Amino acid sequence: MSGVIKQSSRLVEQSTHFAFGRNWASYADSVTESEVKEAEEGLRRLAGGGLSGTRFLDIGSGSGIHALAALRLGAAEVVAVDIDPDSVATTRRVLEAHASGLRWRAEELSIFDAREEALGKFDIVYSWGVLHHTGDMYRALRCSASLVAPGGLFVFALYRRTLFCRPWKMEKRWYAKASPRAQALARAVYVALFRVALVTIRRKRFATYVAQYGRGRRGMDFYHDVHDWMGGWPYESASPRQVDKFMTRHGMQLVRKFALDRIQVGLFGAGCDEYVYSSRTER
């Protein structure tokens, strides 16, 4: 039992995770109005409209771009939390620069330590592509859902389970601890193979693909996403059926879902299914 407790307690230590924060700090330096607009549209699509007057919790704030998008869509208050101090610093920098005078705060906090007594309840709890990197995805889902106000929304995205999840898990464990030089070499190999597949199988020009990458992808960037994908440790994934079974069992009701429309082989990575659940009962 003591070993289980020790392992669980380490989930809140940033040292056990890939350094996502440094990657998103670099990305934030290149963010333009176009990327922010894409983030707004992605959030509007998931939330089903604007966020006027809502309390919004961003779990795993990363670059801070989606906390900013929530404020621009009318959220009355945004609380952004992340386990990575670099992500928290970047979120604060982005919001200080672009959301002056609006109500927000950014804190270094693991979802496993998030408590209603300290944070309160939220009309929208948002976590895109984060909870599968916590080391205990289902516990993270449960903790996040507990912060949704009655009738509120839980908006999240998780990696779809693929045939290649096991080898990617091994790669990520290695990459997260590899030297910068080894990481750069691994990325170069990945990009070269991806480029060949893109041109020969999908008949697309690589340069065009990279230039248009952020469109419809919440304002993201191809090369930062490659680093994020290859280093994303811890790593878990789930099928929509598994997610719905778990969420229903914990008192949540599906509102809408944007699921990948094909079997995911996962040779070059896993895509994310997007989910929106509502809180059905007072918890």
Supply the key terms.
283 residues; disordered N terminus; Rossmann fold; seven-stranded mixed beta sheet; 18% strand; 45% helix
In short:
45% of the residues lie in helices and 18% in strands.
Describe the protein's architecture and organization:
This protein has 283 residues and is of the alpha/beta class. The chain has twelve helices and seven strands. Helix 2 runs parallel beside helix 5, helix 2 runs antiparallel to helix 11 and helix 3 crosses helix 4. The chain is globular.
Q: Return the CATH topology of the largest domain.
A: Rossmann fold
Percentage of residues in strands: 15-25%
Number of helices: 12
**Top-tier CATH class of the largest domain:** Alpha Beta
Q: Give the H and E element order.
A: HHHEHEHEHEHEHHHHHEE
CATH homologous superfamily annotation of the largest domain: Vaccinia Virus protein VP39
The CA-CA distance between the termini, in Å, is 29 Å
The CATH architecture of the largest domain can be named as 3-Layer(aba) Sandwich
Number of domains: 2
Q: Estimate the mean pLDDT confidence.
A: 91
Q: What does the largest sheet look like?
A: 7 strands, mixed
The parts where pLDDT drops under 50 for at least 5 residues are 1-7
Structural category: alpha/beta
Rg is: 18 Å
Estimated helix fraction? 40-55%
